[in-house]
Amino acid sequence: MTAxxxxxxxxxxxxxxxxxxxxxxxxxxxVRRELLAVYAFARLTDDVGDEFEGDRLAALDELDxxxxxxxxxxxxxxxxxxxxxxxGRLDVGTEPFRALIEANRMDQRVHRYATIEDLRAYCMxxxxxxxxxxxxxxxLTTPDRVRLSDEVCIGLQLTEHLQDVGExxxxxxxxxxxxxxxxMACAPEDLLAATASLALxxxxxxxxxxxxxxxxxxxxxxxxxxxxxxxxxxxxxAGGLAALDAVRRADGDVLGxxxxxxxxxxARRTLRELLAATxxxxxx
Length: 284
Hints:
Strand content: under 5%
Radius of gyration: 19 Å
């Protein structure tokens, strides 16, 4: 695992480009550094879980052990050396980081989810920990904020699943609940087609509605935050909503179209989220 992951020493640049379209330019330098370290860890963990050529479970166990070393200040890998001082300051400990590793272990064993409740349980490992860590970095953790953050993060994860239906299916993974596929009479082979069938589009519309409902929690969450964290949270929620807008424009054809948000669409969504948070209202 070490030889493979040491090739990722440019982690900060990658994390900045993919995860901080707004926050990286607006947050204080120290907060930005800590968040980039967190996202670098998340990216590395996902890369090991998705791309490592070898025993992925053993490699993920090695990440777990390196996390222990990072908490003790004795980490070897550059990503964990950057993470070590962050762990020493956060009030959430290593638990949410371990949850992200466990989500990748699940990806090696579980390839389908029977119900939306099962998928939510997975997202509580794969997505919700990021929001909890971010709140801790901002020193803004409260039970109510954690609850809202969990919902937003699950909404973002569901949105990403919708964007990647075809790619995931080609890798043998299905993140659309089997109950929903059955409800809409969507056959498994539909997920591997060049374009989305009418049945698959019905499933996509159902999941888009769920994701929008979850992302709606971004407004009350952002409304409780100081300005800079508010902008960051509004940006995250806006990114998910803009992606869902792209799915809608494609009429649910997530197989035939790359449903990615446009820059103008993201900017409009961010402004709407900020205004909604500021005035505790607004529409989606």
